[in-house]
Amino acid sequence: MEIGQKVKVCRIKDRVSGSVAGKLGKVGTIKEYKMTDGSGVGVVVQFDDRSATWFFEDEIKPVD
């Protein structure tokens, strides 16, 4: 996964707010990397509505 790459949210592992759950199936752009609490690296994804949230790499997939 690279910054600037288009990705689709394909799953969400943890319980999240309704606004984040609404991103399931949406396409966004990777804006930056995020260090998590020792369980890996996540990415911050920005969507067309200018909202952004972070996901683990196994929750997103590249869009062609």
Describe the model.
It comes from Waterburya agarophytonicola KI4. This is DUF2862 domain-containing protein. The chain is mainly beta. It has one domain. The protein has one helix at residues 18-21, and strands at residues 6-9, 27-35, 41-47, 52-56, 60-62. Strands 4-3-2-1-5 form a five-stranded antiparallel β-sheet, with no helix packed on it.
Keywords:
mainly beta; 5-stranded antiparallel β-sheet; 1 helix; globular
Question: Any chance you could write out the topology, listing elements then pairs?
Answer:
Elements: E1 6-9, H1 18-21, E2 27-35, E3 41-47, E4 52-56, E5 60-62
Antiparallel strand pairs: 1-2, 1-5, 2-3, 3-4
Brief summary of the model shown:
The chain has one helix at residues 18-21, and strands at residues 6-9, 27-35, 41-47, 52-56, 60-62. With 64 residues, it is mostly beta strands.
- How far do the termini sit from each other? 13 Å
Shape: globular
Name the average pLDDT.
90
- Beta-strand fraction estimate: 35-45%
Number of helical stretches of at least 4 residues: 1
Please give the radius of gyration in angstroms.
Answer: 11 Å
Proportion in helices:
under 10%
The figure for the number of domains is: 1
